[in-house]
């Protein structure tokens, strides 16, 4: 198991890394812009993007205090509904020999602070190489790996934290549930950099008009996930409870 080592002096900010523009907008609004204690960056989609974004922010902030992977995720456990908050103690990957631990003390403080929001804090988060967009794929990972939720960036950010020897934490909000297969119309709805691809979404909907009800349902779940992400950020700012 890989863990991030805490340096002796933590003078710089905590960096909140989001994948999508939608997530980034919520986080940035709560932070009110970059400050001495917190900065937010948008990485784009996938493990490599998360790793690169974390490495780049460390160049801008050599005394980086910690890294947080924050944003949406897909639910894998049947008990997790849209809007559920996941604060995992471990990140697991498709490579069964590779996993990452979050900073134990930081995890405990944040879990306690968010207790009234009933976060899932025990089961691991699965950081996938490819999107799990069907119920069958989600259930298979849950059964095989006992993960409660899935994202695509946390392993990359955790790996960067390990290399930089800074504490790591993940906080994710469930968007789609295990029983939700993502509409085909969303296949090209987001660019690799995490920004909305409106043309791709419209084109996908034209090709799959029957996806409209599912797309509207996904939009409602997205609104709930954004609301919960805002609640988390407001509860944890200004410093995200890191020990300095």
Outline of this structure?
The chain has 244 residues and is α/β, with parallel strands linked by helices. 38% of the residues lie in helices and 18% in strands.
For the structure shown, list the relevant keywords.
244 residues; nine-stranded mixed sheet; 9 strands; globular; 38% helix; alpha/beta; Rossmann fold; single chain
Q: Care to describe what's here?
A:
This protein has helices at residues 21-31, 47-60, 104-113, 135-145, 154-164, 198-207, 212-236, and strands at residues 14-18, 38-42, 66-75, 85-86, 90-92, 99-101, 125-127, 149-151, 168-176. Strand 7 (125-127), helix 4 and strand 8 form a beta-alpha-beta unit. It starts with 13 loop residues before the first strand and ends in an 8-residue tail after the last helix. The model is unreliable at 4-10 (pLDDT under 50). The chain is globular and about 55 Å long. Strands 1, 2, 3, 4, 5, 6, 7, 8 and 9 form a nine-stranded mixed sheet that branches. The longest helix has 25 residues, at 212-236. It has a single domain, classed as 3-Layer(aba) Sandwich (Rossmann fold). The chain is an alpha/beta fold and 244 residues long.
């Amino acid at each position: 198991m890989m863990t991030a080592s805490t340096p002796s002096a933590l003078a710089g900010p905590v960096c909140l890394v989001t994948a999508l523009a939608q997530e980034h907008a919520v986080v940035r609004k709560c932070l009110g812009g970059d400050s001495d204690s917190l900065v937010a960056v948008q990485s784009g989609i996938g493990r490599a993007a998360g790793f690169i974004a974390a490495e780049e922010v460390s160049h801008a902030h050599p005394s980086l205090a910690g890294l947080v992977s924050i944003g949406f995720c897909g639910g894998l456990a049947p008990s997790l509904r849209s809007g559920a908050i996941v604060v995992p103690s471990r990140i697991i990957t498709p490579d069964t020999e590779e996993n990452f631990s979050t900073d134990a003390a930081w995890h405990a403080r944040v879990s306690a602070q968010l207790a009234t929001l009933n976060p899932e804090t025990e089961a691991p988060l699965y950081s996938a190489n490819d999107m799990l967009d069907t119920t069958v794929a989600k259930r298979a990972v849950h059964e095989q790996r006992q993960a409660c939720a899935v994202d695509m960036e946390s392993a990359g950010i955790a790996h960067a934290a390990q290399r930089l020897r800074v504490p790591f934490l993940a906080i994710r909000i469930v968007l789609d549930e295990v029983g939700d297969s993502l509409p085909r119309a969303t296949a090209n709805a987001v660019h690799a950099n995490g920004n909305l691809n409106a043309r791709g979404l419209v084109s996908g909907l034209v090709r799959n008009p029957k996806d409209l009800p599912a797309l509207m349902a996904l939009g409602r779940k997205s609104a709930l996930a954004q609301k919960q992400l805002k609640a988390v950020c407001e509860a944890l700012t200004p410093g995200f409870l890191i020990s300095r």
